[in-house]
């Protein structure tokens, strides 16, 4: 009889604990769901005020990352280079934005805006008069592919010196647009002045093909491909972030490697 009583009490306790556990679990679920609903409401409110295509929380993190990279950036940090023989022959095209078909390359000139009211126009021959440099590096695209590619042109730092742009070089950003203004990038001046950044007019030792940005494009090995603007039409300087096509779509403005 004693054993039966102990067994009944034990079963009762188990039932009570089970019921209590279910009640506690239910309360926790209600609390979690309520908090999630509140967070979602606040998130949606903040998301309605979006910074360049993405919720402000994400953009804040990306901007913080840019500040850190800006502090540790060094021109001594060089992208790995390769022998010319390692370069691919069939170079992949990373996008065709700003590459309209109604482009007359024979009439092309680079519009260089030194400051408001001070614009000069340069021919390809003006640029090719500078010392030529070649670079073979691993071109990286945000889509996840990369290729070892061979490019030739003039160092942007030499371009700065040639055309008396020392004052402009101390500004924070450089902006570039295609001739039709359909594609545009903004780049920090430190990266533009990196010794491997070139204004490029050759690929694999030959003039740039049209689909690769002829007559002049940007090659900047410390950045992802979205910053390597093809067919440069306008170049200018600013202490404020110039417009950037993919930044407006939600991508990282810095886009550094």
Write the layout of secondary structure elements.
Blueprint: H1 2-48, E1 50-51, E2 54-55, H2 56-72, E3 110-115, E4 118-122, H3 124-128, E5 133-140, E6 146-155, H4 156-162, H5 166-169, E7 173-177, E8 184-188, H6 189-192, E9 198-203, E10 206-207, E11 217-219, E12 234-238
Parallel strand pairs: 3-12
Antiparallel strand pairs: 1-2, 3-4, 5-6, 6-9, 7-8, 7-12, 9-10, 9-11
Broad shape: elongated
Query: What fraction, in percent, of the residue positions are helical?
Result: 25-40%
The appropriate CATH architecture of the domain at 70-93 and 108-238 is Alpha-Beta Complex
Mean pLDDT: 86
User: Strand order across the biggest sheet?
Assistant: 4-3-12-7-8
- Supply the CATH class of the domain at 70-93 and 108-238: Alpha Beta
Reported for the largest beta sheet, the result is: 5 strands, mixed
Please provide the ordered H/E string of secondary-structure elements: HEEHEEHEEHHEEHEEEE
CATH fold name of the domain at 70-93 and 108-238, please? Sulfite Oxidase, Chain A, domain 2
CATH superfamily of the domain at 70-93 and 108-238: Oxidoreductase, molybdopterin-binding domain
Which runs of at least 5 residues are low in confidence (pLDDT < 50)?
1-7, 33-49
Amino-to-carboxy terminus distance: 79 Å
The total of helices stands at: 6
Radius of gyration: 28 Å
Helix-strand category: alpha+beta
């Amino acid at each position: 009889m004693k054993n039966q009583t102990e067994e009944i009490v034990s079963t009762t306790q188990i039932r009570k604990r089970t019921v209590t556990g279910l009640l506690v679990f239910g309360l926790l679920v209600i609390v979690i769901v309520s908090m999630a609903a509140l967070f979602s409401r606040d998130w949606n409110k903040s998301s309605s005020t979006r910074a360049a295509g993405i919720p402000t929380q994400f953009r804040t993190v990306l901007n913080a990352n840019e500040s850190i990279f800006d502090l540790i950036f060094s021109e001594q940090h060089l992208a790995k280079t390769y022998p010319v023989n390692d370069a691919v022959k069939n170079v992949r095209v990373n996008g065709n934005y700003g590459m309209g078909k109604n482009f007359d390359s024979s009439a092309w000139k680079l519009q260089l805006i030194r400051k408001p009211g001070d614009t000069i126009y340069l021919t390809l021959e003006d640029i090719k008069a500078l010392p030529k440099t070649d670079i073979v590096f691993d071109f990286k695209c945000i889509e996840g592919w990369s290729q070892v590619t061979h490019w030739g042109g003039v160092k942007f730092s030499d371009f700065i010196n040639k055309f008396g742009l020392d004052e402009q070089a101390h500004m924070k950003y450089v902006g570039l647009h295609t001739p039709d203004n359909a594609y545009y990038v903004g780049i920090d001046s430190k990266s533009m002045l990196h010794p491997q950044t070139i204004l490029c007019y050759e690929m694999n030792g030959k003039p740039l093909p049209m689909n690769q940005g002829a007559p002049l494009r940007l090659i900047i090995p410390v950045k992802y491909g979205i910053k390597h603007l093809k067919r440069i039409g306008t170049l200018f300087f600013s202490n404020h972030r110039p417009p950037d096509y993919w930044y407006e779509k939600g991508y990282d403005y810095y886009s550094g490697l």
